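Hi V.,

Quick status before I head out on leave. The structure for the redesign project is tokenized and pasted below; the design run finished overnight.
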């Protein structure tokens, strides 16, 4: 689940709500050719040459199946030919098969180790697999081999940012813009990096520069709306852009979300709500896979059923003591809670990571059975194996500090599995007033993974499932699950923070009372909010009054209590 604002190729769930994100696809590193640094190869036969050319044409028109067929024929005639294997990697990456793409590019690098294009393409494939450190190494090599390539520096900056290496990421992105000042993606990424690092004025300046070059740029407007108040002139420009009929659907709804924020900033909440309604409807109409309430309800019920009976767990009772899982619905304050915990000298904030759901997905593929159907069949040894693999995958977050936060807004689905794998882990579920939560989600742009956020009825249904499963986890694992109420936190921070730290087995540290002073890089669009001192005042539902009555009725009919 991602918000629309993180830069291309970023994963995770986006803000307190992802991921990471309705962004344009990451472009290829460059256009491959027969550069002088490649070793000479024997010529292909005329038939293989024609087939390779056909594969390239098919790839260019996105007929990937036809391209793969042609490449299979080329490789039958010329086994392991680097030209064909490279093309096969490009096809695999275009299809989203990043593991196969990485395998192909690695194979070709043995023949062309000094090819910056290959290093960049391999880096992009690894980035999609969350292999951030290895990806960054290949991007560094691409920058060494092609130091004048703004795109190579841009990709390096992206990989470093994904590892929360804010200073290095900003430097790499500045290098990209020094070489290519018109590199839109690099400037947007730099703006987001500045925002995530707490440099809000610098972020605003970069977003404004993008808009100077293109006054209708939807990503710049949306990013700007997340980090600063929009004035009446901004709002007028957004109204004019939003009224255009010649823009792609994605541009239209991103501008709509930004316009709603501008109208809010001018106190025009009735018009803001209409902009939100139109933007969400536009996004919903263009979802690849619309959200299905029945499927979500069935999934939640299946999880409850799978864990209702006694479930085996890892025999390593102390396993997972390093892990603090933070989860909740989008826009409930999970980034703030992570910021508080990561202000402690013993805790590293990992931002949104996907190791847990990916591990569950991999186990489901291995068993040929979807989660949670295989849960009753899993033995203690299976959970121990999964726990050990999780700890190995997340070891990078414990290099400097003994504990770390794993914040994932799908984590509430997997709390039972996580505790079976890691009996000593702690799970923090952040809750906020349901009406405020649903409205906050409705005001933000997410990727298809959070398709429920485009409709208030869907949001109410999703919220009901979240609360039902949250109650179940708290009843089943009262010593390992902590439900933190956002309103209680901002109303009287110190006692709540003391209870939170005590639950995690952490000694009290006064730095946790001033999370806004924490200098770490924050990779979600909540970065601007967590740079402010703890305060009340984020509630907005009163501004929309009777426009939320149908939401309240839907929540009531689903048995959801709210104030």
């Amino acid at each position: 689940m991602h918000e629309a604002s993180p830069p291309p190729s970023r994963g995770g769930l986006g803000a307190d709500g992802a991921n990471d994100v309705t962004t344009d696809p990451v472009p290829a590193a460059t256009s491959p050719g027969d550069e002088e640094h490649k070793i000479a190869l024997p010529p292909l036969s005329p038939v293989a040459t024609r087939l390779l050319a056909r594969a390239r044409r098919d790839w260019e028109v996105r007929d990937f199946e036809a391209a793969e067929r042609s490449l299979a024929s080329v490789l039958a005639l010329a086994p392991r030919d680097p030209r064909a294997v490279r093309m096969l990697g490009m096809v695999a990456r275009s299809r989203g098969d990043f593991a196969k793409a990485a395998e192909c590019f690695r194979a070709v690098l043995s023949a062309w180790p000094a090819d910056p294009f290959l290093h960049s393409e391999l880096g992009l494939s690894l980035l999609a697999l969350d292999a951030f450190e290895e990806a960054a190494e290949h991007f560094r090599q691409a920058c060494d081999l092609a130091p004048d390539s703004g795109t190579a520096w841009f990709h390096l900056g992206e990989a470093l940012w994904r590892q929360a290496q804010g200073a290095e990421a900003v430097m790499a992105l500045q290098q990209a813009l020094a070489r290519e000042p018109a590199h839109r993606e690099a400037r947007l990424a730099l703006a987001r990096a500045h925002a995530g690092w707490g440099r809000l004025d610098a972020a605003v300046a970069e977003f404004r520069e993008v808009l100077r070059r293109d006054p209708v740029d939807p990503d710049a407007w949306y990013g700007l709306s997340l980090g600063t108040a929009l004035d009446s002139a901004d709002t007028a420009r957004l109204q004019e852009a939003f009224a255009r009929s010649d823009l792609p659907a994605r541009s239209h709804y991103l501008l709509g979300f930004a316009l709603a924020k501008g109208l809010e900033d001018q106190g025009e909440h009735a018009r803001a709500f209409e902009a939100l309604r139109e933007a969400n409807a536009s996004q919903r109409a263009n979802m690849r896979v619309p959200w299905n309430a029945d499927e979500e309800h069935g999934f939640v019920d299946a999880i409850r059923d799978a864990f209702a009976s006694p479930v085996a767990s890892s025999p390593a009772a102390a396993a997972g003591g390093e892990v603090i899982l933070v989860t909740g619905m989008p826009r409930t304050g999970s980034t703030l809670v992570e910021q508080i915990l990561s202000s402690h000298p013993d805790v590293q904030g990992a931002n949104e990571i996907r190791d847990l759901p990916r591990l569950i997905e991999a186990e489901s593929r291995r068993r040929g059975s979807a989660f949670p159907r295989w849960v009753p069949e899993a033995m203690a040894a299976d959970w121990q194996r999964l726990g050990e693999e999780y700890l190995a995958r997340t070891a990078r977050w414990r290099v400097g500090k003994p504990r770390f936060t794993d914040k994932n807004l799908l984590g509430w689905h997997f709390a039972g599995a996580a505790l079976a794998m890691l009996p000593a882990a702690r799970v923090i579920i952040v809750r906020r007033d349901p009406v405020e939560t649903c409205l906050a989600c409705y005001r933000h742009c997410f990727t298809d993974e959070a398709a429920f956020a485009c409709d208030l009825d869907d949001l109410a249904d999703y919220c009901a499932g979240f609360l039902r499963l949250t109650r179940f986890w708290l009843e089943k694992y009262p010593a390992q699950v902590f439900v933190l109420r956002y309103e209680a936190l901002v109303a009287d921070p110190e006692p709540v923070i003391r209870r939170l730290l005590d639950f995690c087995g952490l000694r009290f540290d006064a730095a946790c009372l001033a999370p806004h002073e924490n200098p770490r890089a924050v990779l979600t669009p909540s970065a601007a909010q967590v740079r402010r001192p703890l305060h009340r005042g984020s509630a907005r539902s009163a501004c929309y009054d009777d426009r939320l009555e149908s939401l309240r009725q839907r929540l009531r009919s689903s048995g959801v209590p709210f104030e």
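Above is the designed sequence. Residues 132 and 162 are 7 Å apart (CA to CA).

G. will cover questions while I'm gone.

Best,
W.
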